[in-house]
Amino acid sequence: MSEKITPIGQATAESRKAQLDRIIAANTERDLTAQDLVLSSMREAILTAALPPGARLRQEKLAEVFGTSRIPVREALRALEYEGLVTSELDADDIEEVYDLRILLESHAVRLAVPLITDEDLQLLEGLYAEMLAAVTGDEQLAAREQFYSRLFSITGRPRLVAQISRLRQEIARSLRWPTLQHAPEHHERFLEAIRAGDADGAAAQLASHYRRVAILIRRYLRDASAKDRVTMATADAITDTQVKKRKAK
User: Around Cβ 95, how many Cβ atoms within 10 Å?
Assistant: First the structure.
């Protein structure tokens, strides 16, 4: 299986609005604080593409939609940014730059780590790889994958390097949660095989090749989304205005 991004252009603004309405209605029924209501609803909407990549999130409009002040909205957006779901908008060039930097830093980390790996380290990495394979949902797979690489990079004993890598991985985390991106398990198997063999250069080369393919796919998707399916400010305003009217009607 190869990685690919499938089109989501069939999802119209109306269908996304209906999906967003359902998400908010379901969370409104729960006994949540204002911040948790916004946070839970926004997280689900982003992960299910009810709020697609490129959607502009305006605090004042979101506050109207949820019937809150801007304070819980602002705090929820901060939490989502920490999770990597909301960031300063990345365009195709940003994606390419982030992956170029990741290739440089993570390849360097791999070359440092592999010669230092002990039998205990390898056993831990094997266990995390097994968790990755056993994961059912996309979030579980992403969490297992992050634990695997975090453990690997920590072997370098270079905290500043690891911190820089972590920051760059956070920047790109949202795109890796999109349901349109399918990851090829054979990449991770080949990468782990190189680590088992103590082949630092081979593992680094496998990592770099994989990242280049992923960057191309995300870049292509963002360009297609911008041309065909990007949520415009007018559409976003129309959706939120309808929500506000519904709340006022109640």
Answer: 22
CATH number for region 92-225: 1.20.120.530
Domains of the chain by residue range: 13-86, 92-225
Amino acid at 4: K
C-beta separation of 155 from 117 below 8 A: yes
Q: What is the pLDDT of residues 45-68, one digit of tens each?
A: 888 878 877 677 778 888 888 888
**Fold (topology level) of 13-86:** Arc Repressor Mutant, subunit A (1.10.10)
Nearest residue to 60 via CA among 244, 234, 229: 244
* Spatial separation of the C-alpha atoms in residues 52 and 8, rounded to whole Å: 9
Whole-model pTM: value is 0.59
Reduced to 3 DSSP states, what percent helix, strand and coil does the chain have, rounded to the nearest 5? 75, 0, 25
Instruction: Report the alpha-carbon distance of residue 129 to residue 153 in Å, rounded.
Output: 15
DSSP, collapsed to helix, strand or coil, labels residue 78 as: helix
